[in-house]
Amino acid sequence: MAHTWQEEIQSNSRLVLFRGDITKVAVDAIVNAANSSLLGGGGVDGAIHRAGGPAILEACQEIRARQGFCPTGEAVITTAGRLPAKYVIHTVGPVWQNGEMDEPEQLANCYQNSLKLAVENSAKTVAFPNISTGVYGYPKDKAAQVAIKTVRKFLAEDSFLEYVVFVVFDQENYDLYQRLLATK
Ligand code: AR6
């Protein structure tokens, strides 16, 4: 396993696959698979708040006070507290309901809105976890296809971002991403 995401950079690609813990990834912005309360939870959300410290929750509480709940597919940005990243972009993935509730569009919105927010905040390197594939139950293969397709489309129309890193935590997602990223 590589120790840093930079070791996984392939020539001619702005997409990087890295296996590890997103809280340790030094990019401009890491994305959090949050819930609409923005007030923390389990999984990667819990790990980010634990490792980043109370500054992240304070910033989330300010956003909550200003704009209320964060709708599914939308994203907000905060400090990354003590994390090596500069920012955390919190996005709310869809809960999988057999694909009958526009989950693919909502998941695509998560990736697209997060990247848009990154660019607006001059973040050139962005790391994503596998949004919705844990507690929210989105099938991993379907989620990986949406993630890769959406990020590729965004990068094709953008020249600001340098690298987008898919940070995978488990072997199944790693194998899926490796296979899908190998096909153009
Ligand atoms: N680094 C990278 N990926 C991780 C890490 C980590 N440290 N920890 C877990 N993952 P989940 P969701 C992976 O459940 O499905 C929370 O309670 C994990 O293996 O964190 O979007 C929120 O507050 C999985 O592939 O997020 C929400 O209520 C992926 O991250 C709800 O869970 C996402 O799993 C969101 O559910």
TrEMBL record:
- A Pfam family of the record is Macro
User: Which Gene3D superfamilies has this protein been placed in?
Assistant: Leucine Aminopeptidase, subunit E, domain 1 (3.40.220.10)
Q: Where is the Macro domain?
A: 2-184
List, alphabetically, the InterPro entries matched: Macro_dom, Macro_dom-like
List, alphabetically, the PANTHER family matched: GANGLIOSIDE INDUCED DIFFERENTIATION ASSOCIATED PROTEIN 2-RELATED, MACRO DOMAIN-CONTAINING PROTEIN
Q: What is this protein called?
A: O-acetyl-ADP-ribose deacetylase
Q: Which organism is it from?
A: Adhaeribacter rhizoryzae
